[in-house]
Each structure stands twice: as structure tokens, then as C-alpha cells.
Amino acid sequence: MRRLTTAFFVLCVLLFVLGAGFTLGSNVGRGGANPSGDGLVSLLSRGAPAPPNSQPRGAAPPASASADLQEQFQVFWEAWSVVDREYLDRAALDPHKLTHGAIRGMLEAIGDPHTVFMDPEQSEVSDAELRGTFEGIGVHVDLVDGRLRIVTPVDGSPGEKAGLRAGDIVLQADGKDLAGLTLNQAVNAIRGPRGTAVRLLVEREGWPAPRPFEIVRSDIKLESVRTRQLDNGIGYVRISTFAATTARDLRPPLERLMQAHPRGIVLDLRANPGGFLQAALEVSSEFVSGGVLLYEEHADGHRDTFRAKPGGRATQVPVAVLVDKGSASAAEIVAGALRDRERAVLVGEQTFGKGTVQNLHQLADKSTVRVTMARWLTPNEQPLQGVGLTPDIAVAPGAPNTDPALDRAVQHLLSQR
């Protein structure tokens, strides 16, 4: 009876995963009704997730489950039966762990670092930064060629204060080698509660050898929008991430900047790892009066088209967008849209190149499946994934306490009138 109960439990969960994780993934998000978050992960700890897509318990297998697919899953049950019948340590046969392991292995076999399974605890962590407060070292990361690469440290975070930079490769965490781990496994090796320390071994281009960093985790609060008036009548807008409230937080200060009749605006998207698609579209609409902002291309070849909303506050003033190798995902959407709509020039470095769309699906036990379901193209149909955006005006990072990219952007804007 115990074996039958355990097998039935695992079967129910696997059928649910196939139904919700794949059938639902092909339908949710079309037409922009549900904003999609990006696939980047932050080294955070604790917090509650943003509401993902979900489906009731007992979801049926997808309509695409052919006889061949069902036959392949018979092999799984054969393996399960052998383990359940013969494995020595009966206490180790935890149905939750075995089910999560089966799902995780299935998704890892796809070979896409952004299509992942997260258990309930990981799910709680993964989207905390989009709500604005969390605990951790405050570093956005991604898996590039099997290595954990820092996309950007959060402004004012322990990671930034310790000296971590965009492009750094984290080799070890507390002596544990991170090579060959999945993105979630690598993040789990680094994250932890506030007040605790983690020792990282970091590789950086130009260093003769990796260097250690000891970082104490702490509370982190994100302010995604900052503005100020520069000299010579230039407005400055810094967006550090595209959180759910970013577009709303941008409107009042942008309106105040426009009341001063600026000669131009610098939009700083450096070290911005992305965030919600809807936030990126609304921010773009503040600077673009009309037309296509983005194409979303799906596996079957069809495209969803996203257009600028009317009523933008800064649709006529010249704009220069600052980008670097830490500008990713939603940040690249905004930069690409403004350039292709001939509303801005890009100043700085080549961007990261994160241009795929992930849908997040909550499963029956509060774990989640994040599935790549589309890719993004700029208005001129330029793909972002693995390519990024090349700046119109290339500017390398300067010495400490200097900002040559900002200086060059201001110079360009002043030359426009």
C-alpha cells in the first residue's frame, strides 16, 4: 500500500507538471496581459514571490502527449519501481525530493539555463528583488557558458561595496567549486540570511589570478528610479531595475524635469539587469510618441507586437541612453526601442544579450517552473539573445570617480541644439 500511495503521488505531480508547465506555458503572456519577468537570478535570501501563473491540482497531460511520449514515461515508472522495490535506505525515498529531482532533471536536459525548476524555498527567493526589499549580498547573476557571471551588483549593496563588478566570474563559494552547477544550485551555494558572511573566489578580466571576497549579507532596499538636474540644462534619469512600480515611480520626477525645459535627457540603464516586461514598455512609452516598441516571437513563428502608449512626457526632447555589459533583458528592450524609433543614441559598452522570455508557473506544492517560451526582437527586428546592443558611441569605463560615458552623453546632447 505504501508503494502504491507513493507512486500515485509522484504520478499526480508529474502529470500536473506536464499539463501546467508546458500547455499553459504556450498560452500565457500573449498580447501582454501578463507581464513576464526575466530569467536572471539575484543572490538574495527570503521574501515572498510575485503571483505566478497557476493551475488547479489534477491538471491533465497536454494534448501533445503522443503515444511515443507515454511509452517513454513508462521507462520512468520502470526505474521508479526498481528503486522503490530494492533501495536499501527506505527513509531516503522521500516522494517530494524524488519528484522535485525528476522535474529538475527533465528541465536541465533541455539545456536552457533559463528554463528551470525551483522548489518552494527557491521560488520564494527568485523574484524578491522585484518587490523592492530583500536580504542577501545584492548581486544579479546569470549562467554564461556554464560559469556564474555577475550581471550587476545592486546600487549600495554589500556586493557593490565589497568591489564586485559586472562581468566578474564567481568560481567558488565558501570553498565550493561552482563549475558545472545549475544556476539555482550556484545561487543556493551563495545566498543566506542577513548578518552571515560568504567567502567568494572571483575571476576578473585583467587579473593575473582569482581573488577572494568576504561579504556579509544584509537588508537591501531597491529604489529603481533616481533623477537629478545636471549642469547645462541636462536632465538625468537613473533606472536600476524594472520593478513592478518603476513606471509609476518615474512619472512624477520626469514631469518635474520636463517642467524645467531640459536641453536633453540622459537615461542611465547601466548595470540594469532587467525585470518586468510591462514596466519596460511603460517606461519606453514616456520617451516614444508612437509605433512598435518590441516584437515577441514564439516557437510556432507567430509574433506579438507591443506598441507605445500615448501620453509620454518626454517624447520630443533629445535622449542619450547609457548602457554597459550589465544592461540586460528589459533594459535592452528600452534601449533598443528608443534607438530603433530614432529617439535616442546609445552610449557606453556592448550590452549583455538577454533576449528570451520566461513564463513562471506555480505548481501544486508552491514550487515553480520557469519556461522559455519566446524571444524578443527590437522594432528593427534585431534579436537580443546572445548578441546584445552595440552602442552608437563606444566609451570604455574610466578611472575611479570619473564617468566618461556620462560626460560623452552630455556632450552629444548639447550638440543637438
Concise synopsis of the structure shown:
The chain has helices at residues 2-23, 67-86, 95-108, 120-126, 158-162, 183-190, 246-259, 277-285, 330-340, 404-414, and strands at residues 41-45, 53-54, 116-118, 133-144, 147-153, 169-173, 176-177, 197-203, 211-216, 218-221, 225-229, 234-239, 264-268, 292-298, 303-307, 319-323, 344-348, 356-362, 368-377, 393-394. It is an alpha+beta fold. The longest helix has 22 residues, at 2-23.
Q: What does the model show?
A:
This protein has helices at residues 2-23, 67-86, 95-108, 120-126, 158-162, 183-190, 246-259, 277-285, 330-340, 404-414, and strands spanning 41-45, 53-54, 116-118, 133-144, 147-153, 169-173, 176-177, 197-203, 211-216, 218-221, 225-229, 234-239, 264-268, 292-298, 303-307, 319-323, 344-348, 356-362, 368-377, 393-394. The protein starts with a helix and ends with a helix. It is globular, with a radius of gyration of 23 Å. 29% of the residues lie in helices and 26% in strands. The chain has 417 residues and is of the alpha+beta class. A hairpin with a 7-residue loop joins strand 8 and strand 9. The protein has three domains: 2-40 and 48-112, no CATH class; 133-221, Roll (Pdz3 Domain), CATH 2.30.42; 225-414, 2-enoyl-CoA Hydratase, Chain A, domain 1 (Alpha-Beta Complex), CATH 3.90.226.
